[in-house]
Amino acid sequence: MFIDKVKIYVKAGDGGDGMVAFRREAYVPDGGPAGGDGGRGGDIVFEVDEGLRTLMDFRYQKHFKAKRGEDGRSKNQHGKNAEDLVIYVPPGTTLRDSDTGDVIADLTTHKERFTAVRGGRGGKGNTRFTTPANPAPEIKENGEPALERNIELELKLLADAGLVGFPSVGKSTLLSVVSAAKPKIGDYHFTTIQPNLGVVESDNGSSFVMADLPGLIEGAHEGTGLGQQFLRHIERTRVIIHVVDMSGFEGRDPFEDYETINEELRQYNMRLLERPQIIAANKMDMPGADENLAAFREKVPDDVSVYPVSSLTKGGLTNMLRETAEFLEQTPEFPLYEEQEESKVVYRYQKPESPFTITRADDGAFEISGAEIEKIFKMTDMSKDDSINRFSRKMRQMGIDEALRKRGAEDGDTVRLLDFEFEFIE
């Protein structure tokens, strides 16, 4: 089964907790804090493996979590950093943020890597909190909670030349003749339900990868037929080979077929028509094909290359493949996504997110929320008085105390942060 689009959930590893420890060694004067820091959590890393061809592995595993860092230890020993979780993907995989739709990476070459989510840093041990006023602190940090992300993987085949055309015009047969590929071939529409790749060698010694893409029909850019499911694979091809059935066996006009498919390519992505296009006038061994070809040549532009070929007799294929190879040598890779010129990039000021917000719950409690304050809370060890006092000072420095007073908080009112409740005291 060919899987070319899948959504997964990834979460990096949390940082390890710091430690509260003290030196108590016989005959060693001046003991003191000796708690080590926690280790860093593992990153989520995507790496290209050229041995993969589909996203089939993600059909069964869609949740990936990296390991957390090791906790700090006594004698100022830091916890071990966790290993990164490497997720292998085939070349041609595009990563999108499922929540925003933004492209975050385009992985095309073997061993190429991209870090999608960073692991949390390790919490500090009590050695880090020594001051002249408090030379033996019982303060330590918990590890930083790591981020999580929903990512959409989309595979676009890395083919040099792509075969496009209506169903049953002979694309699969042509690929099977010019390469060692063995696609399914049948005399009915949509025989090809998944893309096929084959390596083609021209008579001048050059070789390239050709893709046989499922047949397109009118309305494909809107999802009709197999539609957008496979149109995306044409985006990476540098040369388009437009296969047209010259026999007119199914009662369609070859030129109308040609214009319909080009319109679908234009509607899907206007830049597709910038690619060199070669017309393979197929099924020339059939009766009436010569007359149809003559009428076809009168209507197409003079600068468009038309090659009469027959996949059945293999006639005309050598010249067509030679020109395809020449076009590939002259045509650079097209950028997958439009790149704005620096002069056209507009920078807009974005108001920084508030470190906290205060709301009133149905039970009358004041609820505090916000990414920054929640992160500080999760990294605070609430079992130690020194840590709680430090957290209180941070809240005061952030202006939470004053904000609560403005919202009408009085002595003894309940304040809630995540699942932790405490009393407001003046």
UniProtKB/TrEMBL annotation:
One of its GO terms (cellular component) is cytoplasm. An essential GTPase which binds GTP, GDP and possibly (p)ppGpp with moderate affinity, with high nucleotide exchange rates and a fairly low GTP hydrolysis rate. Plays a role in control of the cell cycle, stress response, ribosome biogenesis and in those bacteria that undergo differentiation, in morphogenesis control. Monomer. This is GTPase Obg. Its cofactor is Mg(2+). GO terms for biological process: ribosome biogenesis. Keywords: Cytoplasm, GTP-binding, Hydrolase, Magnesium, Metal-binding, Nucleotide-binding. Residues 348-426 form the OCT domain. GO terms for molecular function: GTP binding; GTPase activity; magnesium ion binding.
